[in-house]
Write a structure and sequence with these properties.
The protein is an alpha/beta fold and 303 residues long. The protein has helices at residues 3-15, 18-25, 29-43, 59-86, 99-115, 128-136, 199-208, 224-232, 280-291, 293-296, and strands at 48-50, 55-57, 92-97, 120-125, 142-146, 155-163, 165-170, 190-194, 216-221, 238-241, 251-255, 266-273.
Amino acid sequence: MELRQLKYFLRVAETLNFSAAARDLFITQSTLSQQILMLERELNQPLFLRNSREVTLTEAGQTLLPLAKETLRSADNCLLRLDELKNLEGGELNIGVTFSFTSIMAETLTAFLRRYPHVKMNVSQSSMADLMERLSHHELDFVLAFRPLVGNPRIESRPLFHNRLAAIVDERHALAGRKTITLEELQRYDLALPRRGLQARNALDRILAGTGYHYRIKVEMNTVYLIFRLLRESNYVTVLSESTVVGEHGLCAIPIEETNESGYDMVGCVHLLKNHYLKRSAQEFISMLGESSTMLKKSFGQM
């Protein structure tokens, strides 16, 4: 059974006239009669009663009529929905983002929603491990996060920018005017650090391994929002990626000198499932992200 045959059947059922239906369909009457006959043979029962004076629907034809209408309506809706997706006039986009990327993507998110208001956006902020797991299960279209230390053979990580660890302080802090700071100097300050497991903390621990430095870690949190609140109300220092403070009023990032060394930079990436279809909306968002003014500044060592 073909959609074309259902379309022909529906027009004959509506006109109850093969000649008129053929004219409406822009086909010959013999072609129309042949297609209806093929449909009847496939269904193994007649759909029309024909005589020299009139055409009427059989019981099978009356049963098929509403089903044919619904099938053709569903097919038209399918084409419409697919066309909407192609032109970004519908659909959903599911993005996973770690905290360091929330400010980076804010400009693109606003611009994308303004350009494509009919695309529903679902943005999830979580740990990198959780987001990668959800990406692997096709719950997310892509993830914005730093490149992991251990790669996943199922995931492709496309670099967006290179980032460094930095000491983050309130703009009134004594360190706020510094261009750089060393790991040795950080021993003099009270620290409020992200808990182990967050990407910036993992990178810091990797750099510190074997250095023998001793730090005054006063607070550890897994919520960066609270760390920022603490920085604004105290003299504490934290260590995060430079990108974390993009768009954060009143906070300064002072790059840590040792992170200039090869192997210590943090590579911001868009993570995708390998050999997996990337929907049109995801392609457009990633393209807009790369062209955003925020990203164009982002060799983050130049901030």
